[in-house]
Amino acid sequence: MKTFLTTTALVALGLAAPALAEIRIGASISATGPAAFLGDPELKTLEMLVEELNAKGGINGEEIVLVAYDDNGDPNKARTFATRLVEDDEVVAIIGGTTTGTTMSILAVAEDAEIPFISLAGAIDIIDPVKPFTFKTPHTDRMACQKIFEDMQKNAITKIGMISGTDGFGASMQAQCKAVAPDYGIEIVADETYDPKDADMTAQLTKIKGTEGVQAVLNPGFGQGPSIVTRNYKQLDVGLPFYQSHGVASDGFIELAGAEAAEGVRLPGTALLVAGLLAADDPQKPVVDAYKAAFEEKTGTPVGTFGGYAHDAFLILTDAIARAGEAEPAAIRDAIEATTGLAGTTGVYSFTAEDHLGLDLSAFRMLEIKGGQWTLVE
């Protein structure tokens, strides 16, 4: 049985103040299950931000109520919860979809009900083609491929091997990388896959290592799989540049893979991972610093990319509600689509009718792991 979670707060000055009017926001998050390393910080972030905003008086004098369900990463449960959020809980918008699978289930419900939905998952299919009520905060897998290939191109890498997870994220990014590789003069000469539940990927990596002409290796995937691939890569002493996806852009990846094995790994990530290295005039620095400080004080755990996706979704949604002047789904949707120059932890968002992501490649930072720490690639 899933836990029904609500976050409410009453602002009191001396004696208890009258209850504020409510704006009900829904969420279906994978707080437990195989994607918990993504969903747990997302849920904690949403609860923290709701508490903070209500302490300041809510939005236009109305209190925010978060109605959140834990879908365990199960698309069927996510669909059930999305339906409940719309029909029973009467929310005005939904944040969630920790994974691509759960996102697609929620998306179908939200679009049918014409309720604004902001996804926290990466696949390009979420917003391409554009759906009227669906937006998302993470960069797309296509953008991750492009950022990685830009770096390869700078380093005269033209032939690569890929080892991709067969989960929704891995399969989608594998397809997107194949689609854009020719644009960067890159040929994929070895193409292997693994099941996310596999405990050893040595066989696939051995094939890639033995493929003539391979100059670098790319691993589209998320979860524990890429950590195992990274350890196997080190054990085999492949000795070639190794790239991972933004799906593992967190300190947890370094911990699972081990700092020694992860040494030198490159991937596209967000400003949040290198907060201390941002320039003073970086437009993201104030929001990154504020979120990092608040989250780490509240939870006692390091801030990460995935919680940042939830932060940005909440920022986009509440900013739109404030500008719309009313908490009605259609008005909120229109206000989100009119958002421009809104700095979040993931990038600076500017949505249009044709673009429901609102980010370009400049939002990605190319990162490299050195000494167990994230560093910026110059």
Automatic annotation (TrEMBL):
Segments forming domain Leucine-binding protein: 22-358
Key words, A-Z: Amino-acid transport, Signal, Transport
Transmembrane intervals: none
InterPro entries linked: BCAA_transport, Leu-bd, Leu_Ile_Val-bd, Peripla_BP_I
Family, similarity comment: Belongs to the leucine-binding protein family.
PANTHER family reported in the protein's UniProt record: BLR7848 PROTEIN, LEUCINE-SPECIFIC-BINDING PROTEIN
Protein name, as recorded: ABC transporter substrate-binding protein
